[in-house]
Amino acid sequence: MESVVPLKEKKLLNVKLRELASWILMRDFILKGTAGAFQRGYYWYYNKYFNMKKGSIVGLSMLLAAYMLFSYCSSYKELKHEQPSEYL
Amino acid sequence: MNENLFAPFMTPVMVGIPITTLIIILPSILFPTPNRLINNRTISIQQWLTKLTSKQLMSAHSPKGQTWSLMLISLFLFIASTNLLGMLPHSFTPTTQLSMNVGMAIPLWAGTVFTGFRNKTKMSLAHLLPQGTPTFLIPMLVIIETISLFIQPVALAVRLTANITAGHLLMHLIGEATLALMNISLLTTLITFIILTLLTILEFAVALIQAYVFTLLVSLYLHDNT
Protein backbone atom coordinates (compact mmCIF):
# COMPACT_ATOMS: atom_id res chain seq x y z
CA MET A 1 0.00 0.00 0.00
CA GLU A 2 1.37 3.39 -0.91
CA SER A 3 2.17 5.81 1.93
CA VAL A 4 0.22 9.02 1.72
CA VAL A 5 2.80 11.13 3.53
CA PRO A 6 6.17 11.39 1.73
CA LEU A 7 8.77 9.04 3.18
CA LYS A 8 11.28 11.68 4.03
CA GLU A 9 9.13 13.54 6.53
CA LYS A 10 7.99 10.59 8.58
CA LYS A 11 9.27 10.02 12.07
CA LEU A 12 10.94 6.72 12.90
CA LEU A 13 7.95 5.03 14.47
CA ASN A 14 5.77 5.70 11.44
CA VAL A 15 8.12 4.14 8.90
CA LYS A 16 7.20 0.69 7.70
CA LEU A 17 9.83 -2.04 7.84
CA ARG A 18 10.11 -2.27 4.06
CA GLU A 19 10.90 1.39 3.81
CA LEU A 20 13.42 1.39 6.64
CA ALA A 21 16.57 1.10 4.55
CA SER A 22 15.62 3.91 2.20
CA TRP A 23 14.49 6.01 5.18
CA ILE A 24 17.88 5.72 6.84
CA LEU A 25 19.66 6.61 3.62
CA MET A 26 17.46 9.60 3.07
CA ARG A 27 18.01 11.22 6.47
CA ASP A 28 20.27 14.23 6.10
CA PHE A 29 21.83 16.16 8.96
CA ILE A 30 22.34 13.19 11.27
CA LEU A 31 24.56 15.16 13.62
CA LYS A 32 22.13 18.02 13.85
CA GLY A 33 19.32 15.55 14.48
CA THR A 34 21.17 13.95 17.39
CA ALA A 35 21.98 17.32 18.87
CA GLY A 36 18.36 18.36 18.45
CA ALA A 37 17.23 15.21 20.19
CA PHE A 38 19.54 15.86 23.14
CA GLN A 39 18.36 19.44 23.35
CA ARG A 40 14.71 18.44 23.31
CA GLY A 41 15.31 15.78 25.94
CA TYR A 42 17.13 18.24 28.17
CA TYR A 43 14.38 20.82 27.95
CA TRP A 44 11.70 18.23 28.54
CA TYR A 45 13.36 17.16 31.80
CA TYR A 46 14.11 20.73 32.79
CA ASN A 47 10.58 21.97 32.26
CA LYS A 48 9.09 19.03 34.00
CA TYR A 49 11.18 19.07 37.17
CA PHE A 50 13.05 22.33 37.51
CA ASN A 51 11.15 25.12 35.86
CA MET A 52 8.28 25.17 38.32
CA LYS A 53 7.11 27.82 40.70
CA LYS A 54 7.60 25.52 43.67
CA GLY A 55 10.28 23.16 42.53
CA SER A 56 11.55 20.52 44.90
CA ILE A 57 14.72 18.52 45.26
CA VAL A 58 13.30 15.55 43.33
CA GLY A 59 14.56 16.69 39.95
CA LEU A 60 18.13 17.16 41.10
CA SER A 61 18.28 13.94 43.10
CA MET A 62 16.94 11.88 40.21
CA LEU A 63 19.65 13.36 38.02
CA LEU A 64 22.35 12.59 40.57
CA ALA A 65 21.05 9.05 41.11
CA ALA A 66 21.13 8.45 37.35
CA TYR A 67 24.70 9.78 37.23
CA MET A 68 25.69 7.48 40.07
CA LEU A 69 24.16 4.50 38.30
CA PHE A 70 25.94 5.46 35.09
CA SER A 71 29.30 5.68 36.89
CA TYR A 72 28.69 2.34 38.54
CA CYS A 73 28.00 0.70 35.20
CA SER A 74 31.04 2.36 33.72
CA SER A 75 33.36 1.07 36.46
CA TYR A 76 31.73 -2.33 36.88
CA LYS A 77 34.69 -4.08 35.38
CA GLU A 78 37.04 -3.03 38.17
CA LEU A 79 34.44 -3.46 40.87
CA LYS A 80 33.70 -7.03 39.81
CA HIS A 81 36.78 -8.27 41.64
CA GLU A 82 35.75 -6.89 44.99
CA GLN A 83 34.28 -9.70 47.00
CA PRO A 84 32.56 -9.25 50.34
CA SER A 85 34.84 -9.92 53.24
CA GLU A 86 35.69 -13.56 53.63
CA TYR A 87 36.96 -13.35 57.16
CA LEU A 88 34.49 -15.03 59.42
CA MET B 1 44.44 -4.32 46.61
CA ASN B 2 46.81 -1.66 45.34
CA GLU B 3 45.40 -1.70 41.86
CA ASN B 4 41.90 -1.61 43.22
CA LEU B 5 42.70 1.41 45.30
CA PHE B 6 43.75 3.60 42.38
CA ALA B 7 41.18 2.33 39.91
CA PRO B 8 38.71 5.18 40.54
CA PHE B 9 41.33 7.66 39.40
CA MET B 10 41.88 6.17 35.98
CA THR B 11 40.21 7.87 33.05
CA PRO B 12 36.72 6.43 32.70
CA VAL B 13 36.18 4.26 29.68
CA MET B 14 32.88 2.84 28.55
CA VAL B 15 32.92 0.07 25.93
CA GLY B 16 36.34 1.26 24.88
CA ILE B 17 35.45 4.92 24.41
CA PRO B 18 36.85 7.43 26.90
CA ILE B 19 33.99 9.48 28.28
CA THR B 20 36.13 11.98 30.15
CA THR B 21 34.90 14.92 28.08
CA LEU B 22 31.29 14.12 28.87
CA ILE B 23 32.01 13.98 32.58
CA ILE B 24 33.81 17.32 32.45
CA ILE B 25 30.89 18.92 30.61
CA LEU B 26 28.32 17.41 32.99
CA PRO B 27 28.36 20.14 35.70
CA SER B 28 27.33 22.75 33.14
CA ILE B 29 23.94 21.04 32.86
CA LEU B 30 23.28 21.77 36.50
CA PHE B 31 23.42 25.55 36.05
CA PRO B 32 20.50 26.67 33.90
CA THR B 33 20.42 30.18 32.49
CA PRO B 34 18.01 32.64 34.09
CA ASN B 35 15.39 33.82 31.64
CA ARG B 36 13.05 35.96 33.67
CA LEU B 37 13.11 38.48 36.42
CA ILE B 38 11.95 35.95 39.00
CA ASN B 39 13.07 32.42 38.21
CA ASN B 40 12.46 28.98 39.58
CA ARG B 41 13.95 27.94 42.87
CA THR B 42 17.03 26.29 41.46
CA ILE B 43 18.10 29.36 39.54
CA SER B 44 17.22 31.69 42.39
CA ILE B 45 19.38 29.78 44.84
CA GLN B 46 22.25 29.68 42.39
CA GLN B 47 21.92 33.38 41.68
CA TRP B 48 21.97 34.22 45.37
CA LEU B 49 25.04 32.08 45.99
CA THR B 50 26.83 33.53 42.97
CA LYS B 51 26.12 37.06 44.08
CA LEU B 52 27.39 36.27 47.58
CA THR B 53 30.56 34.69 46.24
CA SER B 54 31.31 37.34 43.68
CA LYS B 55 30.88 40.14 46.19
CA GLN B 56 33.18 38.34 48.58
CA LEU B 57 35.80 37.65 45.95
CA MET B 58 35.86 40.73 43.80
CA SER B 59 35.08 43.62 46.12
CA ALA B 60 38.73 44.08 47.07
CA HIS B 61 39.81 44.83 43.51
CA SER B 62 40.07 48.01 41.53
CA PRO B 63 37.81 48.33 38.48
CA LYS B 64 40.62 47.12 36.29
CA GLY B 65 40.96 43.95 38.34
CA GLN B 66 37.22 43.45 38.35
CA THR B 67 37.25 42.79 34.64
CA TRP B 68 38.48 39.35 35.68
CA SER B 69 35.34 38.60 37.69
CA LEU B 70 33.60 36.49 35.03
CA MET B 71 36.68 34.34 34.63
CA LEU B 72 37.17 33.86 38.35
CA ILE B 73 33.56 33.17 39.22
CA SER B 74 33.18 30.60 36.45
CA LEU B 75 36.42 28.98 37.61
CA PHE B 76 35.08 28.84 41.13
CA LEU B 77 31.75 27.36 40.01
CA PHE B 78 33.46 24.78 37.83
CA ILE B 79 35.83 23.52 40.50
CA ALA B 80 33.14 23.59 43.20
CA SER B 81 30.60 21.66 41.15
CA THR B 82 33.18 19.16 39.90
CA ASN B 83 34.43 18.42 43.40
CA LEU B 84 30.94 18.13 44.83
CA LEU B 85 29.88 15.77 42.06
CA GLY B 86 32.94 13.69 42.83
CA MET B 87 31.61 13.07 46.31
CA LEU B 88 29.00 10.72 44.87
CA PRO B 89 30.02 7.08 45.08
CA HIS B 90 31.70 5.55 42.04
CA SER B 91 31.89 8.86 40.21
CA PHE B 92 34.97 10.24 38.50
CA THR B 93 36.41 13.59 39.57
CA PRO B 94 38.31 15.35 36.80
CA THR B 95 40.17 17.54 39.27
CA THR B 96 42.06 14.55 40.59
CA GLN B 97 44.03 14.53 37.36
CA LEU B 98 47.14 16.67 37.58
CA SER B 99 46.99 17.32 33.85
CA MET B 100 43.75 19.20 34.13
CA ASN B 101 44.79 21.25 37.14
CA VAL B 102 48.07 22.29 35.60
CA GLY B 103 46.13 23.18 32.46
CA MET B 104 43.99 25.48 34.57
CA ALA B 105 46.72 26.90 36.76
CA ILE B 106 49.46 27.86 34.33
CA PRO B 107 47.44 29.98 31.88
CA LEU B 108 45.66 31.86 34.64
CA TRP B 109 48.81 32.59 36.60
CA ALA B 110 50.64 33.59 33.43
CA GLY B 111 47.76 35.91 32.59
CA THR B 112 48.11 37.73 35.86
CA VAL B 113 51.87 38.03 35.56
CA PHE B 114 51.76 39.33 32.01
CA THR B 115 48.99 41.79 32.85
CA GLY B 116 51.14 43.21 35.60
CA PHE B 117 54.22 43.32 33.40
CA ARG B 118 52.44 45.04 30.56
CA ASN B 119 50.66 47.72 32.49
CA LYS B 120 52.92 48.42 35.44
CA THR B 121 56.33 47.06 34.56
CA LYS B 122 58.27 48.86 37.24
CA MET B 123 55.77 47.95 39.95
CA SER B 124 55.67 44.26 39.12
CA LEU B 125 59.44 44.07 38.93
CA ALA B 126 59.62 45.86 42.24
CA HIS B 127 57.61 43.07 43.84
CA LEU B 128 60.64 40.86 43.51
CA LEU B 129 62.19 42.61 46.48
CA PRO B 130 60.38 43.10 49.80
CA GLN B 131 60.67 46.46 51.39
CA GLY B 132 63.33 47.24 53.90
CA THR B 133 65.84 44.50 53.23
CA PRO B 134 69.47 45.08 54.17
CA THR B 135 71.57 45.93 51.14
CA PHE B 136 73.88 42.96 51.23
CA LEU B 137 70.95 40.54 51.17
CA ILE B 138 69.44 41.94 47.97
CA PRO B 139 70.88 39.55 45.32
CA MET B 140 69.95 36.45 47.27
CA LEU B 141 66.50 37.76 48.01
CA VAL B 142 65.81 38.57 44.37
CA ILE B 143 66.65 35.00 43.46
CA ILE B 144 64.43 33.66 46.21
CA GLU B 145 61.52 35.84 45.23
CA THR B 146 61.85 34.82 41.58
CA ILE B 147 61.78 31.17 42.54
CA SER B 148 58.73 31.73 44.69
CA LEU B 149 57.05 33.49 41.79
CA PHE B 150 57.64 30.64 39.40
CA ILE B 151 56.53 28.06 41.89
CA GLN B 152 53.07 29.65 42.17
CA PRO B 153 51.32 27.81 39.30
CA VAL B 154 52.85 24.48 40.29
CA ALA B 155 51.69 25.04 43.85
CA LEU B 156 48.17 25.93 42.71
CA ALA B 157 47.82 22.80 40.59
CA VAL B 158 49.46 20.36 42.97
CA ARG B 159 47.53 21.72 45.95
CA LEU B 160 44.18 21.04 44.31
CA THR B 161 45.16 17.64 42.95
CA ALA B 162 46.73 16.39 46.15
CA ASN B 163 43.90 17.52 48.37
CA ILE B 164 41.12 15.96 46.36
CA THR B 165 43.01 12.76 45.59
CA ALA B 166 44.10 12.28 49.18
CA GLY B 167 40.59 12.83 50.45
CA HIS B 168 39.09 10.29 48.09
CA LEU B 169 41.78 7.71 48.85
CA LEU B 170 41.33 8.17 52.56
CA MET B 171 37.61 7.66 52.31
CA HIS B 172 38.12 4.46 50.30
CA LEU B 173 40.63 3.10 52.79
CA ILE B 174 38.61 3.89 55.86
CA GLY B 175 35.51 2.43 54.27
CA GLU B 176 37.34 -0.79 53.51
CA ALA B 177 38.71 -0.88 57.02
CA THR B 178 35.24 -0.51 58.46
CA LEU B 179 33.95 -3.39 56.40
CA ALA B 180 36.86 -5.55 57.42
CA LEU B 181 36.32 -4.77 61.09
CA MET B 182 32.64 -5.47 60.99
CA ASN B 183 33.01 -8.72 62.86
CA ILE B 184 35.00 -7.14 65.67
CA SER B 185 32.17 -4.89 66.53
CA LEU B 186 33.80 -2.90 69.32
CA LEU B 187 35.87 -0.82 66.96
CA THR B 188 33.29 -0.61 64.21
CA THR B 189 31.24 2.16 65.65
CA LEU B 190 34.30 4.26 66.30
CA ILE B 191 35.60 3.86 62.79
CA THR B 192 32.24 4.53 61.22
CA PHE B 193 32.10 7.71 63.16
CA ILE B 194 35.52 8.67 61.89
CA ILE B 195 34.29 8.04 58.34
CA LEU B 196 31.34 10.27 58.89
CA THR B 197 33.48 13.05 60.27
CA LEU B 198 35.98 12.73 57.46
CA LEU B 199 33.23 12.85 54.88
CA THR B 200 31.84 16.00 56.39
CA ILE B 201 35.23 17.60 56.53
CA LEU B 202 35.82 16.58 52.95
CA GLU B 203 32.66 18.37 51.97
CA PHE B 204 34.76 21.34 52.68
CA ALA B 205 36.39 20.55 49.42
CA VAL B 206 34.39 23.53 48.52
CA ALA B 207 36.56 25.44 50.91
CA LEU B 208 39.44 24.24 48.83
CA ILE B 209 37.96 25.94 45.86
CA GLN B 210 37.82 29.03 47.93
CA ALA B 211 41.48 28.58 48.66
CA TYR B 212 42.21 28.09 44.97
CA VAL B 213 40.49 31.15 43.78
CA PHE B 214 41.67 33.18 46.70
CA THR B 215 45.24 32.36 46.00
CA LEU B 216 44.75 33.21 42.38
CA LEU B 217 43.04 36.34 43.49
CA VAL B 218 45.84 37.44 45.75
CA SER B 219 48.26 36.94 42.94
CA LEU B 220 46.15 38.96 40.56
CA TYR B 221 45.68 41.71 43.09
CA LEU B 222 49.34 42.09 43.83
CA HIS B 223 50.42 41.97 40.23
CA ASP B 224 47.85 44.15 38.72
CA ASN B 225 46.87 46.87 41.01
CA THR B 226 49.16 47.73 43.89
Automatic annotation (TrEMBL), chain B:
CDD domains: ATP-synt_Fo_a_6 (cd00310). One of its GO terms (molecular function) is proton-transporting ATP synthase activity, rotational mechanism. Keywords: ATP synthesis, CF(0), Hydrogen ion transport, Ion transport, Membrane, Mitochondrion, Mitochondrion inner membrane, Transmembrane, Transmembrane helix, Transport. One of its GO terms (cellular component) is mitochondrial inner membrane. It is found in: Mitochondrion inner membrane. Its main location: mitochondrion. It catalyses: H(+)(in) = H(+)(out). The chain crosses the membrane at residues 12-31, 67-86, 137-158, 179-198, 204-222. It is a multi-pass membrane protein. Gene3D superfamilies: ATP synthase, F0 complex, subunit A (1.20.120.220). Coiled coil: none annotated. Belongs to the ATPase A chain family. NCBIfam families: ATP_synt_6_or_A. Component of the ATP synthase complex composed at least of ATP5F1A/subunit alpha, ATP5F1B/subunit beta, ATP5MC1/subunit c (homooctomer), MT-ATP6/subunit a, MT-ATP8/subunit 8, ATP5ME/subunit e, ATP5MF/subunit f, ATP5MG/subunit g, ATP5MK/subunit k, ATP5MJ/subunit j, ATP5F1C/subunit gamma, ATP5F1D/subunit delta, ATP5F1E/subunit epsilon, ATP5PF/subunit F6, ATP5PB/subunit b, ATP5PD/subunit d, ATP5PO/subunit OSCP. This is ATP synthase subunit a.
